[in-house]
Structures are given as structure tokens and as C-alpha cells.
Amino acid sequence: MTTTPFPFTPTGIVRRVDAAPSPNAVVITPPGRLGLPRWSELWGAREVLYRFGQRDVLLRYRQTAVGVLWVVLQPLASAGIFSLVFGTVANLPSQGMPYFVFSYAGMLAWNLFNNVVGRSAPSLVTNQALVSKVFFPRLLVPLSTAMSVMLDFGVALVLGVVLLFVYGVNPGWAVLLLPVWVVLLVCCALGIGLAAASIQVKYRDVGYALPWVMQLVLYGSPVAFSIDAVPHQVRWAFEANPMTWFLEAFRWSFLGLPAPTLWQVGGMVVVSALVLLGGVLVFQKNERLFADVI
Amino acid sequence: MTNPAVRVRGLGKTYRIGRSGQRPTTAVEAMLQRLRSPLARSRFTEFDALDGIDLDVPWGEALGIVGRNGAGKSTLLKVLTRVTAPTRGRIELGGRMGSLLEVGTGFSGELTGRENIFLNGSILGMTRSEIRSSFDEIVEFSGVEKFLDTQVKRYSSGMYVRLAFAVAAHLRTEILAIDEVLAVGDAEFQRKSLAKMRDVAKDGRTVLYVSHQVQTVTSLCTSAVFLDRGRLTFAGSVDDTLEVYRRSFERYAEEQRDATRRAGSGQLRAQTVVPASDVFEPAETKRFTVAVGKNADLVGQYFVSAHINDINGTVIAQCDSRAVGGWFDPAKEQEVRLSLRAPWLKPGRYTVDVFLCQMGVLDAWEGAASFEVLPGSPYPEMTLDEATARGVILADFDYEATVQARR
Question: How much is the average pLDDT of B210-235?
Fold first, then answer.
């Protein structure tokens, strides 16, 4: 048997194409330890993000009898229960607001956060056939889950506005800042979701632990009750919880309640940026193993 | 143009294989292990799936990648398509790489055919305008126009596969990697797919094709390379490479003669496997004698399983002695005789793998014997070759007809 020396060019019918080197040329090398994603590649694949998001939305409303009603029912029912338990039974203060609107505003923020984390974390594992077979920027899988959550949020927000009119609550000019809080909260949730999704590829424990942790955070944050209802001895712990800052900001913009302090606003920006960056880095570090261990 | 479509230098991919039961699968286990022995580095063995691959593929080439099972063909394609990252080396791609690694990945049963075309197309790297412009072509190629707005989960498996392939086949990437996907659909669709792939190469784009089906490599590729245990050992024309590929089976058989190099626990070894003749007629009963050593310490009886493989490495028959009540005593040296009466074999070269097993495999001897089936037809009538060209074996059959009664 003869062995051809390397490097070689296979013989055969070679048809040359006289074109300039493609702008799409790619160099593949072993991955380094840490790294940020290639932004141009992410941008080039934005269609995937859109299609994934579209798929999530369609999947959730197809073959459901009342479709979009579920999105509305969920925060309504939770807010109803909370106002019954905390407002009527425990008779907690709600900063002068009707308890139902007060807890609905909390639920808006909490559902946004919780659903982004809850849907992005298992996204890689649910799409494992794709991840182990086709190349595309994997970051898009968890990112795309935020789209359907945002849609749900939009629907719930519209209902919330209706509630404001019904209860005659006027939030004032602060409502203009609501989009800012939404973006910051989603960034924060995505950071956690990205890290969780990439770790879940290797350790499925995340899938069991995360919902439980999220439940603890729910009770450790003033979602269903007001920060005023927290006794002084432990109030510092609640004040230090970034989720509290977001909830305060949401209620300021949505209900016109007292604004969060300046350090809390600054904290929100810093925390969101750091968590998102950290999530992306953790994701990138684990990414090279996805196809091999999923 | 100076740059080739694909340039690979010193490419290697190493997998870490944990020793059995060592690898933690949950975070708690991993933590416990770390706690128990904080200094010990996690133990694993390394396995080179690919090593020192150098390769240049010019534009417009359709390159076939062949090799035995586990030679690293699919790993090579996965690294080239960036599904998994290389451990060493460098790859330069002259353009976008599209891949057909498995038909229908990224298809979602709940979505309609139309929605899936857009979803799958975008995952495979097409832009929206590219998908739009080839949408009609995709639909026509797949032949599912009528069901475009039906959920894919209601498709027949044939329709599903045709649609999935059609999307992938219309990728406009400069380089296309294909792994075994041409074996889908009926014969008509396969022909159409092969023709489509050939057109891709004619456009001056580059095709990398992995297959166990030697026939499709011959009909699609313009050159080929042979992978052996993660190394590229031969490159050249399709015919030469396939010759090397076939010969690798023989060389492998040579190595396997040494019992210590064979897989299996080794508690019992076959000594020789001898066919009654080097050549058989297609319909003749083929007899083989397996001489097995003894091991008085081995408890219980063992059974023998012989696989008959054709020249392309396809197992065409598994003759397992369990199926016919053949259990043998390891305390004495045995001479086990196998008679293969049916099916009739097509003319060509065959190899026999012999396995001695109990609960586990005692001896796995691949390529233990080979034999030739002579050209000739076992059928009563003389026919043209095309009457027997299809199929892997020759079946023993009859036709009868009765005139249908009129109603």
C-alpha cells in the first residue's frame, strides 16, 4: 500500500472558482479559557433568535383552548391569592394602595424575572438534539426564551393598566422609566439563566435545585408584601436583596409609590451588568463542552 | 485562487474518558469526590479520536471520507462544522460551512411545514431572504405542497424526511458537510438527492461527504481520504481510497490472529476458524469449523456467535448458537461446526467474525476467516445481471399465478 505524503491535494476533477476570498472565511482553533462571544457571529444569526422565539410563542398557544387567557389568569390568580392571604388574613400594610393592585405590580416584576430564569435554564437540554448536531451560536438558545416571556409580560402589563384605571391609580411621570427597569431585570435574569443553562448541560441537578431556589427568593423578597411589613431586625437583609430594589422601582413606576433610593438605582444597573457579564462568561467557558457532554 | 476551501493543519481531538464509575454525573457527587480527596486529580484516560490531521480540499471538490467504524469520520465532520471544538491544530474555512449531519434536527413537530422551513433554514445558517428565494424550490423538491400548513407531527415519516432533506439541500453555503444522510427516503428520492448533491459540487462549491455506503461515495465524490483510528493514512482518487478501505479489513484480520490483541475477557479463546473451502457456490451449504481452547476454571457453558460480513463491512447474517440451542462446555477443547444453509450469498468476498460469549464477551475475533462466493446463479433460469443486481443476498423464492375469478 502506498501512503501519500502530507500535506497533499486530492487528485480528481478540480473545478476552480475564480472568486475573491470569501468574506465569510473562518479560522477554527482550540478554544481558550475565557472569552466573550463573537458579536458579529451573534448578529449574523439573529434570524435564529427570532425563529426560536416565534417557535416558543406558537408552541405555547397552539392546541390550547383559551390561549392567551392563561397569560392573564396566572398573575391575576396569584395577585388574588396574595391579597387574600397577606392583605385580608394577615392584614399587612400596602402603602395605602388597594392590596390587589399592590401585589399585582409585584407579580408583574416577579413573573418577568422568574419566567426568564425558569425558561432559559433548561433550554439547552431541551434542545440537545440541535446542540449536538448543528453549529450556531448557542447563546441564542437561552436568549430566545426571553422573547416569549416578554410577550407574556406585555399582555399582563396591558391588563395591569386596565386595573390602574379601575382602581383609579395614577403613577405619574415615573411610568416613563418602567422600560428601563424591565430591561435591567431581564438582563439580570438572563445572566442567571445563561449560567444555569450551561451548567445544566453537565449537571442536571440545576433543573431540580433552581425552581426551589427561586421559590426561596420569592419569599425572601417583598413581592407579595410591602417592605414596610418587614420587622426592623431583619429589614437590612431585605434592603440588601437586589430583588427588593427592582420591586421598589417597579412599584414606583407603576403605582407612583415612593421612589427607590439613588444607591439602589445605581445598584440595579451595576448588578444587572455584572450578572449578565458573569452569565455570558460562564456560558462561554462551558460552551466548548456542550456537544461532548450533553 | 490560492486558498483552498478547507485547510486543516495538525488537527487533533482528545476525549477524556473517566474510568468506569469514576465520572461524577451530578454536582453533589462531584463535590463529594472533591471533598474526599481534595488533592487527587480526577482520574481519566485520554482517547485521541483524531490526531495529526492535515488536509487541503480545493474548491469544487466533492471529498469522500471513508474509514472503519470508530475511525473518527463523524468526529472530523463535527469538528469541521464547529459542533464540537478541536483540542489541537488549526482549521481554515474559505467560506460558510453548512451541514447535513442528521436530517430533521431542529424540526419541531408542533410547527407547520412552512414554519419549519424557516426555522430549520435559519438554524442551518440561511438568512431570511435566502430562505424566501429558495422557498418554492424547497417545497417543490420535497413534494409536500399540499401539507405546507399542516403540523409536521402529522406528516408521514417519508414526508418528514423529504422536507427536512429539501431544506438542508438548498443551503447556499460555500462548503457543505454531509454525514450519511443520503440514505433516506425511497429509491427515487435518493436518486434525486444524489443528483442534487452532485449539482452542488458542480457549482464550484465544496462537499465533504462521510459514508459507510461505498456506492454513494463512488457516485458522488471526486476524491477521497481514508481515516484509520483517528489518523489520515491515505488520500487520492475515489477508487484507490476504496481499495485501501477494503484492504484495511484484511490487514485488520491479520492483526486479530494474535489472540492477545483481540477484545474480550480472554478467559477462553478461539484457536482457529476454518471454512470447509475457500470458495463456495452461492446456494451451497457453507460449513465452518471453530476450534476453541479450554479453561477448566470457567463456570457454566458458553455459546458461539458468528457474523457473516460482505465486502463493505455490512453484517448480513448473525449465526448465534443460542438461537439453535448450541451451548458448549469450556472444560474441554471443542470443535464447533457451523453450517450455513440459507440465505444464498451473492458472488463476492465475505469475512466471518467469531464471538465466544457467556454473560460477557470472552473472545471477539473480527475477521477470523474469509471466503469467496463464486460467480454463478443458483436460479434455474439464465438471466441478465440486472435481475440479481439489487439486494444484499440472493433469496430462495418462487412465483405462482392463478387467474383471478371475475366478480
Answer: 84
